[in-house]
TrEMBL record, chain A:
Organism of origin: Shimia abyssi
Chief subcellular location: membrane
GO cellular component, one term: plasma membrane
Domain of life: Bacteria
Entry membrane topology: Multi-pass membrane protein
Alphabetical list of PANTHER family matching this protein: ABC TRANSPORTER ATP-BINDING PROTEIN, HIGH-AFFINITY BRANCHED-CHAIN AMINO ACID TRANSPORT SYSTEM PERMEASE
Transmembrane feature ranges: 9-26, 46-63, 94-116, 123-144, 192-218, 248-268, 288-307, 328-348, 354-374
Location of this chain's protein in the cell: Cell membrane
Protein name: Amino acid/amide ABC transporter membrane protein 2 (HAAT family)
Gene Ontology molecular-function annotations: branched-chain amino acid transmembrane transporter activity
InterPro entries for the chain: ABC_transp_permease, LivM-like
Keywords for this protein: Cell membrane, Membrane, Transmembrane, Transmembrane helix
Automatic annotation (TrEMBL), chain B:
Protein name (record): Amino acid/amide ABC transporter ATP-binding protein 1 (HAAT family)
N-terminal signal peptide: none
GO cellular component, one term: plasma membrane
Ranges for domain ABC transporter: 4-249
Organism: Shimia abyssi
Transmembrane segments: none
Coiled coil segments of this chain: none
GO MF annotations, alphabetized: ATP binding; ATP hydrolysis activity
Keywords: ATP-binding, Nucleotide-binding, Transport
Top-level division of the source organism's lineage: Bacteria
UniProtKB/TrEMBL annotation, chain C:
GO terms for MF: transmembrane transporter activity
Localization per Swiss-Prot or TrEMBL: Cell membrane
UniProt cross-references to PANTHER family, sorted A to Z: ABC TRANSPORTER ATP-BINDING PROTEIN (PTHR11795:SF442), BRANCHED-CHAIN AMINO ACID TRANSPORT SYSTEM PERMEASE PROTEIN LIVH (PTHR11795)
InterPro entries reported in the protein's UniProt record: ABC_transp_permease, BCAA_transport_permease
Any one biological process term the GO annotation gives: amino acid transport
Membrane-crossing segments per the record: 16-35, 42-61, 104-123, 190-216, 237-258, 270-298, 310-328
CDD domains listed in its UniProt record: TM_PBP1_LivH_like
Name of the molecule in the record: Amino acid/amide ABC transporter membrane protein 1 (HAAT family)
A GO-annotated cellular component: plasma membrane
The species this protein was found in: Shimia abyssi
Membrane topology summary: Multi-pass membrane protein
Length: 400, 251, 343
């Protein structure tokens, strides 16, 4: 299908299925039930799932394939957001030009930063990217305020020119981003008995782009270019003595992954037209590293899973409070109930970062291949349990 | 005709004169061995040939062009391939992919993206890589993870990868170091076969006299950073100066 | 001239903190070959040792003071720290006042213990893993440590003052012959600088003049050979990790009066300290110290009104800018050795 091998095509179909039916999949519990707080099927969160999925897919093209660990990728996310908002301010509220400019601008910055940073490798590369991103963050926060909005962030205003659109709507409001008349924030609710499923224009727009981004990532992974990138990670000396200069390949990978980040930033601004410098802070760069590692660096589906998992935890676990915990463990004797709640409490609510840190450490220590490797191990274990006698000597296949 | 011409090369590391006044002339289609005791400067000389080090003085001409000041990948594109002491292969890639990379490098020369095509759809590359694996007797290991192979197989793959670049000069840095006797003999046979069947010049740095005298038709003896003598194997064997400097030391 | 001296002085305290953290980072990197992203967390834990001690010694019980009344006319209830009961009011008050310097004694064993547990429990298993894995696992550890602190101490900065004797400032300019009130410098910052100089001197003396230090230095230069000599280098490296943790912790303890500690101060300093290490040259102890002070002072110069007017925003980016320039022109940093971390 589409020039893909069966295994990759299956993966693509899984991603298409997951994204298209996400409003159902993420809302498994009826509205108003005790479990409803685990529902993640509201537009805002679903949009973040796919946007960060795109961000992580792009980061993985750099880190997963070449092994160059960038600690400054959030800078491109921020540039994408700023560019998109400027497009909304100056041109029109159509998201297409906004996203295109976001990608072009982040690509240009990636070209510049990559050209300089890629002169060094290993930890030096990480520090250089970190330094560039922190510099851009600091500038966006202070002297570049006319362009970035500084501390308050860049917002739309009623007197923006919007030469191809209207500065104001008929009602005197700031117009909202849309795609040829379809407003991104529009939603349609489908109620089936006590379940409510929300279908949001913005979400589906992002989801389609995620599918395209994912498809492109598969093609890159399976292409000669992808092979060269893996060769760079594996042995740069041999590559040099094979007559190839690794630099243009790594730079190309850096620019591509920067453009993915810019795309994600542009989409973020398209869903909610404002951009702030905190999007470029180094913790935001750390977050995409976490997502990619957690899901499985160097695998295709891993970053998407990692992004989904972290964003789910951020939004769902952080909402659990001690009252909810008490209601869950109410069936236990009072003393035991309090005891268990006291143990669990540090890991939920505001403590979700602690849970995240612990899970991340466990993954790095025991599952360097991330969730994907975990899945593969479980699958292998199940298979072994089923067939009893296994063929020995089968070499491990590279993760997809 | 000499394909590689080294003239008056000197290299100093701090207080150590690693190479001084080195002359070396490697004839086309010969198998030229460079021998010498430890610390004689063999590896330094090799690194000067491939662009890893830049000599302080002298010139290195390959096929009439200077290699000095060029980076390793440029020198490689001129037609010099190098086999390392410990096999340098792409351990995380499959054997087939290992072989495809030099084929791409040979065909495309410098950087070309190919980011969308499926790599297996590049028929000419796939065929060439398969043929080379066949030549190296490694067709059955095609899908193997390169890092999981034996040392002998890694060496064989590395030599195959170098040949896939269709070099005019193949440099080998102690290719049998640390190998079992059987693997060493296999490697000798392989190199003999390469030198007989292909239009290729081989320059080899080697410690093992068995390997040197089974392969070389020309030998340069290096001692304390400077060439002692250059001659054919028979004369080298009988040369008292060489015995003193090298063979005597070896017992 | 006085303005220049003032900026140098202003840069010293931050520079001291950078230098101390970078020194520990370099010790760990040089001895164990591990890139420790959790080192900032050790700095932060040190700071919270000071907070903890000042809380412990201020534990109070309520006493009814018959001599005074509250606004309703009832006898006033006052909190009296237990420490007053044990040592008398004067000594007790002095102990509370001096809680931050006292925390040094409290923090040293804790920090060494934390360091040793970290090394034995986690870092040890990562010696042979790629640097990227080391960065990632210590990054995870840093998140966990700071979240634990946040859970117990909350997210807000906790002001913990310096002893009364060191509060306020003095006129440094008048002391060295400038006009009065040109160079005003807070006492505690001077204390911090001298403390940092003392620690740095102690670490260097320890490495230079003790057999232990000699073995460690040899191990930094060539680990395998030292191992071959039959010296149990691993055990010494564990102790070294403990010492590096203690250095970071002490830097944190004494920094508390300058900036009230919060749970993310470690991360804030870590990013800059890494830049410092890289600028100084990975694996070079003098380089780390030099770069720490240099960047601290540069940062303070860049914050001068005249400089900001000339190049807006320069104070925000100067450290990163210097780091980028140094990395590109002197790839091994100011004093780095060849071949460290280059693959």
């Amino acid at each position: 299908m589409l020039g893909l091998k069966k295994k990759d095509a299956t993966l693509l179909l899984i991603v298409i299925g997951l994204t298209m039916f996400a409003p159902f999949i993420l809302n498994p519990f009826p509205d108003g039930s005790a479990m409803a707080q685990f529902n993640a099927g509201y537009p805002d969160l679903m949009q973040r799932f796919v946007i960060f999925g795109i961000f992580a897919i792009g980061f993985n093209i750099l880190f997963g394939l070449t092994g160059y660990l960038s600690f400054g990728h959030a800078a491109f996310l921020g540039i994408g957001s700023y560019s998109a908002v400027w497009m909304f301010k100056l041109l029109s509220m159509n998201v297409i030009p906004a996203i295109l400019l976001a990608m072009v601008m982040s690509g240009l910055f990636a070209l510049l930063i990559g050209f300089i940073s890629l002169r060094r490798s290993g930890i030096y590369f990480s520090i250089l990217t970190l330094a560039f991103a922190q510099m851009m963050f600091a500038l966006a926060y202070s002297v570049l305020t006319p362009i970035t909005g500084g501390e308050t962030g860049l917002q739309l205003a009623l007197d923006d020119p919007r030469v191809l659109g209207a500065s104001q709507t008929a009602g005197g409001n700031i117009p909202v981003p849309g795609l040829f008349g379809m407003e991104m924030r529009n939603s349609f609710d489908l109620a089936i008995s006590s379940w409510v499923f929300t279908f949001n224009v913005g979400y589906y727009f992002c989801a389609l782009i995620l599918i395209a981004a994912f498809y492109l990532a598969i093609r890159i992974f399976r292409s000669p270019f992808g092979m060269m990138l893996r060769a760079i990670k594996s042995n740069q000396t041999r590559l040099n003595y094979t007559g190839l200069n690794p630099r243009p390949y790594t730079l190309a990978a850096f620019v591509i992954s920067g453009m993915y980040a810019g795309l994600a930033g542009g989409l973020m601004a398209s869903m909610d037209p404002l951009a702030g410098a905190e999007r470029m802070f180094w913790t935001a760069s750390g977050e995409v590293v976490l997502m990619t590692i957690l899901g499985g660096a160097g695998t295709l589906i891993g970053p998407v899973l990692g992004a989904g998992m972290i964003k789910y935890m951020e939004n769902i676990i952080s909402k659990i409070n001690s009252d909810i915990l008490h209601s869950w463990f109410a069936f236990l004797p009072d003393g035991l109930e309090d005891f268990i709640v006291a143990i669990v409490y540090p890991f939920i609510g505001k403590g979700w970062h602690l849970t995240l840190g612990i899970i991340f450490m466990l993954v790095v220590i025991f599952l360097p291949g991330g969730l994907v490797e975990g899945g593969q191990r479980i699958a292998k274990w199940l298979k072994r349990g089923k067939t009893e006698d296994t063929k020995p000597g089968k070499s491990t296949e590279p993760a997809e | 005709m000499a394909i590689l011409e080294v003239k008056d090369v000197g290299k100093r590391f701090g207080g150590l004169q690693a190479l001084s006044d080195v002359q070396l002339s490697v004839k086309e289609n010969s198998v030229h061995a460079i021998i010498g005791p430890n610390g004689a400067g063999k590896s330094t000389l090799l690194n000067c040939l491939v662009g890893k080090l830049i000599p302080d003085t002298g010139s290195v001409m390959f096929d009439g062009q200077s290699v000095l000041g060029r980076s390793p990948h440029e020198i490689n594109q001129m037609g010099i391939s190098r086999v390392f002491q410990t096999p340098e292969i792409f351990g995380d890639l499959s054997v087939m992919e290992n072989m495809m990379i030099p084929c791409f490098a040979r065909r495309d020369g410098a950087f070309r993206m190919h980011a969308i095509e499926d790599m297996m759809s590049e028929k000419d590359i796939v065929e060439k890589a398969e043929a080379m694996l066949e030549d190296m007797n490694m067709a059955d290991k095609r899908e193997m993870h390169a890092a999981s192979m034996s040392r002998g197989d890694k060496r064989r793959l590395e030599i195959g990868m170098c040949l896939a670049q269709e070099p005019r000069l193949l440099l080998l840095d102690e290719p049998t170091a640390g190998m079992a006797r059987a693997d060493t003999n296999n490697t000798i046979d392989l190199l003999k076969q390469i030198s007989d069947e292909r239009d290729i010049t081989i320059a080899i740095i080697e410690h093992d006299m068995h390997v040197v005298f089974s392969l070389a038709n020309r030998i340069t003896v290096l001692a304390q950073g400077t060439p002692l003598v250059e001659d054919n194997p028979e004369n080298i064997r009988g040369n008292p100066k060489v015995r003193e400097a090298y063979l005597g030391e070896a017992g | 001239m006085d303005a220049i001296i003032l900026q140098i002085l202003n840069g010293l305290d931050k520079g001291s903190a950078y230098a101390l953290i970078a020194l520990g980072l370099t010790l760990i990197f040089g001895t164990l070959g591990v890139v420790n992203f959790a080192h900032g967390a050790l700095f932060m834990i040190g700071a919270f040792c000071a907070v903890t001690l000042s809380r412990i010694i201020s534990f109070s019980h309520e006493v009814i003071d018959e001599t005074r009344t509250d606004f309703l006319g009832n006898p006033l209830k006052v909190d009296v720290p237990y420490i007053y009961d044990w040592f008398g009011e004067a000594t007790g008050a002095a102990i509370i006042d001096w809680s931050v310097p006292l925390s040094i004694l409290f923090a040293i064993p804790i920090m060494i213990a934390v360091g040793v547990i970290m090394e034995r429990g986690l870092i040890k298993h990562f010696y042979k893993r790629p640097h990227a894995d080391q960065i990632l696992v210590t990054f995870g550890l840093a998140i966990v440590l700071q979240e634990i602190i946040k859970y117990y101490y909350g997210a807000n900065p906790i002001p913990t003052p310096a002893p009364e004797a060191f509060k306020g400032s003095f006129d440094f300019g008048a002391m060295i012959g400038f006009a009065e009130n040109t160079i005003i410098y807070p006492y505690w910052r001077l204390v911090y600088f001298m403390f940092a100089a003392l620690i740095i001197g102690a670490v260097f003396a320890f490495l230079q003049f003790t057999t232990f230090g000699m073995v460690v230095r040899a191990g930094m230069a060539d680990r395998e050979t030292v191992g071959l000599l039959g010296i149990n280098i691993d055990k010494r490296f564990t102790i070294m990790f403990g010492i590096a943790a203690a250095v970071a912790g002490l830097a944190g303890v004494m920094y508390v009066p300058i900036n009230p500690p919060n749970y993310h101060m470690g991360m804030d300093f870590l990013v800059l300290s890494f830049v410092v290490v890289v600028v100084g040259g990975m694996g070079s102890l003098p380089g780390a110290v030099l770069a720490g002070f240099l960047l601290g002072i540069l940062e303070s110069f860049a914050s001068m009104r005249q400089v900001i007017d000339l190049i807006p925003g320069i104070n925000q980016i100067i450290i990163y800018l210097v780091a980028i320039i140094i990395l590109l022109t002197r790839p091994r940093g100011l004093m780095g050795r060849k071949g460290v971390m280059e693959d």
